[in-house]
């Protein structure tokens, strides 16, 4: 099975200057836990709900009214390709200990995101179990 068969399609990204409050509203409105961040037509990072809490709200000097995606994002982005085998993408998620991976096409354009939730409906029980154990382990 290929990643493109299970991924969530139609994912957008935000600018690094997007206010954190807007990110939180976007996450709530779309019932999602992460938002890719792009600049100059390329992905540069990811903001998760956990990033907002741990890198933002938990800091003493954090000003939610002024903070932007750049202030809380995890820099550097790891992707998989839409034509990758799902097992390959899951092993990549295991190795990186991430719950979500942006998906790119041959032109290196983001075309979706694959999450543990997406693969839970399609992967074999053994493969899914190993991936969940690895991704959920303490860092």
UniProtKB/TrEMBL annotation:
SUPFAM superfamilies: CBS-domain pair (SSF54631). Keywords: CBS domain. Pfam families: CBS. Residues 7-64, 73-130 form the CBS domain. PROSITE patterns: CBS. PANTHER family: CBS DOMAIN-CONTAINING PROTEIN, CBS DOMAIN-CONTAINING PROTEIN CBSX3, MITOCHONDRIAL. This is Inosine-5-monophosphate dehydrogenase.
């Amino acid at each position: 099975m290929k990643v493109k068969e299970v991924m969530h399609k139609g994912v957008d990204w935000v600018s690094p200057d997007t206010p954190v409050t807007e990110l939180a509203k976007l996450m709530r409105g779309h019932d999602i836990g992460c938002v890719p961040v792009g600049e100059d037509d390329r992905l540069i990072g990811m903001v998760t709900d956990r990033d907002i809490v741990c890198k933002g709200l938990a800091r003493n000097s954090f000003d939610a009214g002024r903070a932007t995606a750049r202030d809380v994002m995890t820099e550097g982005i790891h992707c998989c390709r839409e034509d990758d085998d799902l097992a390959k993408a899951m092993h990549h998620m295991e190795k990186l200990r991430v719950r979500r991976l942006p998906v790119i096409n041959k032109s290196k354009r983001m075309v979706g995101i694959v999450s543990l939730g997406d693969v839970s409906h399609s992967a074999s029980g053994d493969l899914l179990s190993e991936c969940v154990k690895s991704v959920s382990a303490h860092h």
